[in-house]
């Protein structure tokens, strides 16, 4: 299987089109994940532990736990996201495969976007598990398609910022420790409206579009800003 | 090495900053009328808006410095960014503290987790993390490049703070270009503050904003000079070390 992957990489034509390069990177990450299975499983385990820890802190007060469940969901995703980001990008550095990516005939921002897609999808897989867990634990309608849509939008923006920041933080002296310090404050302008929008859907009756509109627009704006910055600045942070 | 002396611009700006701050203080305490609903407490507001304004301005300058580092790769732009983030953070902290002191009588609490206040807290954290990133990088060129990218990305928090307070309902009044919203907020009983109800107040606010801006510029000149001296000292140190090692061997 892995030999196959190498052959494919070698036979890429000189001028690879942007999207096929993106797709190649994403598929490569999937293949690694299918063989090692580490990133998503670590993220899921970590999230479960976090949720149980929070429940332990909130303890007997189920009402309070339900009130806080939206924020708790986002906090868990953010924390698990830093693990996924660190893992997926550190693996490339450890095996020196990142240098191979840099000398391959692929544009830097295609590498960036491929990484954003693959880690976003890993995080979305985690979120599917989390949504089930949260519905079971808190008895709130997290399964609503609108909620899943906002989760997907938020995740994409978060990972778009995350890949850029992680690419820097893993090259520093403090490495893994630095990532949450840099990334979490940057992601809060995204999470604040996203959590507001999700909590609007936690009531039995659906909110009108006008109630969530501005929050969703803020999330989309954040996504666009971060992806644009990533596409523009990624090559400045991977060049050595 | 004529760096040890202040140059003329810095000296002029230092004096201008001192004078304008005194003028602003006089205007705030003696020229501005007492506000009707809040009384004398409202005078904090001039200080609060002035420092919040300089905070945003400083982060904008840092952003420009960051862009120039990436375009030109010159060391001086990195120094500009660093100085501006440092000073901006100080002014932002002052704005938060002043706002908090104002919030106690106005909202009966030092702090509220309203969107705007939360966003400002996030902004503070994002820019404080800038120094963590710098501290973790040894290579000078890499530090300049990474900090430049970070400072540009961090500006997203400023942009979103600016936008979100205009579209999310909030207890905090909107100052720049938001008079209608503020008035509406006050009418709904959401906000304490309904805008400036006399020209004297507007004049005082402008004086205070200008004074804070001059102070910022003066401070920047001093901070950039300090950074240059630090860099020169580092170069001299290496030279002395190299010289001493050459002698001993």
Q: Topology of this protein?
A:
The complex is a heterodimer of chains A (240) and B (249).
Chain A: H1 2-10, H2 18-36, H3 39-58, H4 62-94, H5 97-103, H6 108-138, H7 145-169, H8 178-200, H9 209-238
Helix pairs in contact in A: 2-6, 3-4, 3-6, 4-6, 4-7, 4-8, 6-7, 6-9, 7-8, 7-9, 8-9
Chain B: H1 8-31, H2 44-72, H3 75-107, H4 115-135, H5 140-167, H6 179-187, H7 199-248
Plain-language structure description:
The complex is a heterodimer of chains A (240) and B (249). Chain A has one domain. With 240 residues, chain A is an all-alpha fold. Chain A has helices at 2-10, 18-36, 39-58, 62-94, 97-103, 108-138, 145-169, 178-200, 209-238. Chain B is mainly α and 249 residues long. Chain B has one domain: Four Helix Bundle (Hemerythrin (Met), subunit A), CATH 1.20.120. The model of chain B is unreliable at 185-192 (pLDDT under 50). At the A-B interface, helix 7, helix 8 and helix 9 of A face helix 4 and helix 5 of B.
* Computed CA radius of gyration of chain A, to the nearest angstrom: 19 Å
State the separation between the terminal residues of chain B, measured CA to CA: 30 Å
Please identify the structural class of chain B as seen in this structure: mainly alpha
Please trace the helix and strand order of chain B, writing H or E for each element.
Answer: HHHHHHH
Helicity of chain A, as a percent range: over 70%
Uncertain runs of chain B: 185-192
Overall spatial form of chain B: globular
> Quaternary state, please?
heterodimer
What is the general shape of chain A? Answer: globular
Enumerate how many helices of chain B there are, as a single number: 7
Overall pLDDT metric of chain B:
83
First CA to last CA of chain A: what distance?
Answer: 31 Å
> What is the name of the CATH topology of chain B?
Four Helix Bundle (Hemerythrin (Met), subunit A)
Largest sheet of chain B: none
Radius of gyration of chain B, CA atoms, in whole angstroms: 21 Å
> Quick check: average pLDDT of chain A?
85
């Amino acid at each position: 299987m892995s030999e196959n992957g190498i052959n494919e990489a070698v036979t890429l034509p000189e001028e690879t089109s942007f999207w096929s390069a993106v797709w190649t990177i994403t598929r490569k990450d999937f293949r690694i994940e299918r063989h090692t299975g580490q990133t998503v499983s670590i993220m899921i385990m970590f999230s479960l532990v976090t949720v149980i820890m929070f429940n332990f802190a909130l303890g007997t007060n189920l009402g309070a736990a339900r009130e806080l469940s939206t924020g708790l969901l986002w906090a868990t995703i953010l924390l698990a996201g830093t693990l996924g980001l660190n893992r997926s990008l550190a693996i490339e550095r450890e095996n020196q495969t990142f240098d191979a990516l840099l000398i391959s005939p692929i544009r830097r921002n295609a590498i960036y976007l491929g990484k954003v897609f693959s880690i976003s999808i890993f995080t979305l897989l985690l979120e599917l598990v989390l949504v089930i867990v949260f519905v079971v634990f808190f008895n709130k309608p997290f399964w609503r398609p609108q909620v899943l849509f906002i989760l997907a939008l938020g995740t994409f923006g978060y990972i778009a910022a995350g890949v850029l920041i992680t690419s820097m933080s893993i090259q520093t002296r403090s490495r893994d420790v630095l990532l949450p310090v840099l990334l979490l404050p940057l992601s809060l302008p995204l999470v604040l409206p996203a959590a507001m929008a999700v909590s609007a859907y936690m009531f039995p009756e659906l909110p009108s579009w006008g109630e969530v509109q501005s929050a969703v627009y803020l999330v989309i704006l954040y996504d666009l800003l971060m992806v644009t910055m990533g596409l523009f600045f990624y090559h400045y942070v991977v060049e050595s | 090495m004529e760096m040890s002396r202040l140059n003329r611009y810095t000296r002029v700006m230092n004096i201008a900053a001192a004078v304008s701050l005194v003028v602003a203080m006089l205007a705030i305490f003696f020229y501005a009328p007492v506000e009707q609903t809040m009384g004398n407490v409202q005078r904090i507001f001039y200080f609060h808006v002035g420092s919040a304004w300089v905070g945003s301005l400083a982060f904008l300058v840092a952003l420009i410095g960051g862009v120039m580092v990436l375009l030109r790769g010159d060391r001086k732009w990195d120094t500009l960014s660093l100085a501006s983030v440092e000073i901006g953070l100080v002014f932002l902290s002052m704005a938060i503290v002043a706002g908090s002191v104002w919030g106690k009588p106005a909202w009966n609490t030092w702090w509220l987790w309203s969107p705007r206040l939360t966003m400002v807290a996030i902004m503070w954290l994002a820019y404080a993390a800038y120094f963590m990133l710098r501290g973790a990088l040894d290579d000078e060129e890499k530090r300049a490049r990474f900090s430049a990218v970070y400072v540009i990305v961090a500006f997203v928090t400023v942009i979103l703070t600016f936008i979100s307070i205009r579209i999310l309902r909030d207890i905090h009044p909107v100052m720049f270009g938001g008079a209608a919203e503020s008035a509406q907020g006050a009418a709904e009983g959401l906000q304490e503050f309904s805008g400036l109800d006399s020209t004297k107040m507007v004049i005082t606010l402008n004086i205070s904003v200008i004074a804070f801006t001059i102070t910022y510029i003066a401070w920047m000149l001093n901070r950039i000079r300090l950074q240059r001296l630090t860099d020169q000292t580092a170069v001299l140190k290496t030279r002395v070390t190299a010289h001493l090692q050459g002698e001993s061997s």
